[in-house]
Amino acid sequence: MAEEVILKVTQLNKSFGGLQATNDVNYEMRKGELSAIIGPNGAGKSTFFNLLTGYHKVDSGEVRYKGRDITNWPPHRIVRLGISRAFQVSNIYPALTTYENIRQAILAQQKRTLYFFIPAERLAKQETDELLKTAGLSEHADSLAGNLSQGDKKRLELAIALGSKPDLVFLDEPTAGMSGEETHETMELVKRLNREMGLTILFTEHDMSVVFGYARRLTVLHQGTIIAQGTPEEVRANETAQKIYLGEEA
Ligand code: ADP
Ligand code: MG
User: Fold this and answer.
1) 46 C-alpha vs ligand 2 centroid, how far in Å?
2) Going by C-beta distance under 8 Å and a sequence separation of 6 or more, which residues neighbour residue 134?
3) Which residue spans within 129-209 are E strands per DSSP?
4) Helix axes 98-107, 150-162, angle to 10 degrees
5) Among 60, 112, 162, 233, which residue's beta carbon has the most beta carbons within 10 A?
6) Class assignment of domain 5-249?
7) Ligand 1 atom 24 nearest Cα
8) Which numbered atom of ligand 1 lies nearest the CA of 17?
């Protein structure tokens, strides 16, 4: 039986000046999905994520999560509902260590009353260590985040996104700037988060082999409009998608 729809986006619109970055977008996600949004640079992928997570205000349309209207809620309230995101451009604190970056993300979501009873340095230690391990960053725990390799920075970004214990995660180009091997490792981690931890995940990605290898459902965005949607096989066979997007890449 199909899982419940947890995210429902209706007739979403956003323009910047005269540019329509999001154009009447209708979109649904079911619990447990691992899906991708693809489209050329400037198609509106990051804008879509920004609208869903409160970083941009919508012009019109509606975003519902588990039945609740969360349109234009501020980011911190959306995070508390269990929706998290990793940014295309890094959002880490470069002057803090890897460990501290993750710990801050965990602490930001915890109840403040705890703080009075536990010595500060012990707060969230176990959870932070677990997330460091999950993201493959244990050996870099004490490195300044600003000194990490590009691949490790993206993994840290992912770990920070997981710090709020989300059910639904948006990953904006999680493998940008990574080598082939790093990309593979990161996407295997994404797959485990989906399969083993039950996270519902939507990601954007430029590399078509990654997209077709990992996403079970694809949505093609072009100039803010969804032009094709379906399984990887369906999208591969879709003539509009081929012409507008896949053709450009070939
Ligand atoms: P993608 O992530 O698919 O590459 P974006 O969502 O970043 O695309 O951008 C979609 C369009 O909206 C682009 O033309 C971009 O220049 C424009 N855009 C994005 N954010 C802003 C902003 N804050 N102000 C003005 N224009 C923006
Ligand atoms: Mg983008």
Assistant:
1) 4
2) 159, 162, 189
3) 168-172, 200-204
4) 20
5) 162
6) alpha beta
7) 16
8) 25
Q: Which ligand places an atom closest to the C-alpha of 45? A: 1
Among the listed residues 219, 194, 193, the one whose alpha carbon sits nearest the alpha carbon of residue 205: 219
Which numbered atom of ligand 1 lies nearest the CA of 40?
3
Over residues 30-74, the pLDDT tens digits come to 999 999 999 989 999 999 999 999 999 999 999 999 999 999 999
99-121: string of b/e by CB count within 10 Å (b at 16+)?
bbbbbbbbbeeeeeeeeeeeeee
pTM score of the predicted model: 0.91
40-71: string of b/e by CB count within 10 Å (b at 16+)? eeebbbbbbbbbbbbebebeebebbbbeeebb
> What ligand is nearest to the CA atom of residue 25?
1
Q: Ligand 2 (ion): which residues have CB within 5 A?
A: 45-46, 88
